[in-house]
Design brief:
This protein is of the alpha+beta class. It has 4 domains: 146 residues, Beta Polymerase, domain 2, CATH 3.30.460; 123 residues, Orthogonal Bundle (cca-adding enzyme, domain 2); 53 residues, no CATH class; 45 residues, no CATH class. The protein contains 22 helices and 11 strands. The strands form 3 sheets. A 7-stranded mixed β-sheet has the order 3-4-5-2-1-8-9. A two-stranded antiparallel ribbon has the order 6-7. β6 and β7 form a beta hairpin. It is elongated. It starts with a helix and ends with a helix. Bound molecules: adenosine-5'-triphosphate. The site of adenosine-5'-triphosphate has 13 residues, from α8.
Length: 399
């Protein structure tokens, strides 16, 4: 892998971009930098990934770049796209320029090859509908048919046409996400159109809705909390059913930035399982969410428990990640007990095994489980330390 060149590409340095355009030209293809990369460049923000659009064969360009950079690529023929994979999950996405038509609101679009200009007109917001030419003949020229630069300066999120949200209601989530992340305002007519489309959100597939929730969860801490609050005010979260309790911005805000999955679990725990379980959520996340839904009963029960063994017996039936999130996000006294369980008690092991019990002449059966549980309780409560003490403890009990 040519790490140096890859790094320069991800930082969109002029020489790296020029090199990209030259390689594409050699493959008789016009190449453009598109989407968020230009928006972020103008705003002086670090871009997350590099999106390129090509007028010509995406397969040819991707395969040539893959050779030049010594990095693998995947071609998605059906979608007319390709992805080059770099270190640490970094990637460069390339798509053939296209026109999109929506057969029905909320359905996936039908896609045909088209020029870069048409490709820009199918995009979500003006600030995302600009292209930077990488082609040797006009390198650096900005194509901005919808006045995205003007809106960037005015800090506005504006759709390109009045059917934009009804064509694709995921844009409701995208508009709020960009507005809150960038500190932009949703332009007034765009906001009216957005509000008029909110009830179409339920037409989106669970997969697409879940993807939007994942994108929100990956935003930085304070932005993602503001996004959730704003979407709630706009009634854009009603696809999850009635909330079980008021959204707790303070608790959501305490989840560290790099814990997107934890944020999503805590968010989903505000709603019943009935709706959340329709989303393609991994089983482990559903378990975390279930534990988080029980935060109040868990803390209430903990208040009446004091010995390490009783705390362990109770908490061991709950999901550990869920418990960690409760301890991070609640001020209850019970959190100390949860932390002790996670950091100390759950790691305590006894040294006696079933074989040892057999050697002591105890015939195998369900009582083995009881004896071993009693041993663990005693060890947790500080009654036992060495294996010898464990053996004596068993002998005393069994005689
Ligand atoms: P981010 O910083 O969140 O990655 P981005 O602008 O790169 O922002 P992507 O989701 O990677 O966002 O999409 C890349 C580009 O594809 C967008 O800038 C936009 O032009 C276009 N796009 C993505 N999703 C949609 C959509 N639902 N409707 C129209 N255009 C879209």
């Amino acid at each position: 892998m040519n790490k140096k060149r890859w790094g320069l590409l991800l930082r969109s340095t002029p020489s790296a971009l020029r090199w990209l355009g030259k390689i594409a030209a050699e493959e008789k293809t016009a190449l453009y930098l598109v989407g968020g990369a230009i928006r972020d460049m103008v705003l002086g923000k670090r871009t997350r990934d590099l999106d390129l659009a090509c007028e010509g064969s995406v397969k040819k360009v991707a395969s040539r770049l893959s050779k030049e950079l010594s990095t693998p690529f995947t071609h998605y023929q059906q979608f007319m796209t390709a992805t080059l994979e770099g270190p640490e999950e970094s990637r460069i996405d390339i798509a053939e320029t296209r026109r999109e038509t929506y057969p029905a609101p909320g359905a996936l679009p039908e896609v045909e090859k088209a020029s870069i200009m048409e490709d820009l007109y199918r995009r979500d917001f003006t600030v995302n509908a600009m292209a930077l030419s990488l082609n040797p003949r006009d390198f650096g020229e900005i194509i901005d048919p919808t006045e995205g630069m003007v809106d960037l300066r005015k800090r506005l999120i504006r759709v390109l046409h009045e059917k934009s949200f009804s064509d694709d209601p995921t844009r409701v989530f995208r508009a709020v996400r960009y507005a809150e992340r960038l500190g932009f305002r949703i332009e007034s007519r765009t906001l009216v159109q957005l509000k008029g489309t909110v009830e179409m959100i339920h037409r989106l597939s669970p997969e697409r809705l879940f993807y939007e929730l994942q994108c929100i969860s990956r935003e930085a801490g304070d932005a993602r909390v503001r996004i959730i609050k704003k979407l709630r005010r706009l009634n854009a979260l009603s696809f999850l059913g009635e909330a079980l309790k008021p959204l707790s911005a303070a608790r959501l805000g305490r989840i560290p930035d790099d814990q997107a999955c934890e944020f999503l679990c805590l968010f989903l725990s505000h709603f019943t399982d009935e709706y959340a379980s329709r989303l393609p959520v991994k089983k482990a996340c559903l378990e975390t969410t279930n534990t988080l839904r029980k935060v109040n009963p868990v803390l209430a029960k903990l208040a009446g428990l004091s010995s390490p063994s009783s705390i362990t017996r109770f908490l061991s039936t709950h999901d550990k990640r869920g418990l960690r999130i409760i301890s991070q996000t609640s001020d209850s006294k019970g959190c100390r007990k949860i932390k002790d369980y996670l950091e100390i008690y759950s790691k305590v092991r006894i040294k006696t095994t079933g074989d040892d019990l057999k050697k002591m002449g105890i015939s195998p059966g369900p009582r083995y489980r009881r004896i071993l549980d009693d041993l663990l309780d005693a060890k947790l409560n500080g009654v036992l330390e060495t294996k010898r003490q464990e053996t004596e403890f068993v002998k005393k009990k069994e005689n």
